[in-house]
């Protein structure tokens, strides 16, 4: 873990002028916020699914409902990457 952290920091230091432009971009910050909100939805769904006693049903419910909740949250927040993906799928 220390080796990976060291490599990441060295890569960041070498490319900091490019990375800062990407990270500090308004669209990138908005996308990160939307993804974090979607992840909170997944955590809530998984917490609720823990109440199911059968582990197989619990996993199936958690995965399927989490996916729906995540996509729904991204749609509600008008995630630009999701809309681009939907547009590309409509073309095919």
Explain the overall architecture.
The model has no long low-confidence stretch (mean pLDDT about 90). The protein is mainly alpha-helical. The radius of gyration is 18 Å and the shape is extended. Helix content is about 85%, strand content about 0%. Helix 3 runs antiparallel to helix 4. The chain starts with a helix and ends with a helix. It has helices spanning about 1-15, 15-25, 25-50, 55-75, 80-90. The chain is built from 5 helices and no strands.
Strand count, sense and closure of the main sheet?
A: none
Spatial extent as radius of gyration: 18 Å
**Please, how many helices?**
5
- Which secondary-structure class do the elements indicate? mainly alpha
Give the overall average pLDDT: 89
Principal-axis shape: extended
Oligomer: single chain
Helix/strand order: HHHHH
**How far do the termini sit from each other?**
42 Å
Strand content: under 5%
SS elements, strand count: 0
User: Unreliable stretches, pLDDT < 50, 5 or more residues?
Assistant: none
In summary, what is this structure?
Helix content is 86%, strand content 0%. It is built from five helices and no strands.
Itemize the secondary structure elements and their pairings:
Layout: H1 2-14, H2 16-23, H3 26-49, H4 55-76, H5 80-91
Can you give keywords for this protein?
92 residues; mainly alpha; 5 helices; 0% strand
């Amino acid at each position: 873990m220390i080796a990976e952290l060291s490599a990441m920091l060295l890569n960041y230091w070498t490319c900091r002028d490019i990375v800062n432009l990407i990270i500090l971009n308004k669209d990138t910050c908005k996308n990160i916020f939307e993804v974090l909100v979607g992840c909170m939805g997944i955590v809530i769904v998984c917490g609720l699914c823990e109440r199911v006693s059968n582990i197989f049903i619990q996993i199936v419910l958690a995965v399927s409902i989490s996916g729906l909740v995540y996509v729904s949250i991204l749609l509600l927040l008008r995630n630009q990457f999701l809309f681009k993906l939907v547009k590309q799928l409509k073309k095919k």
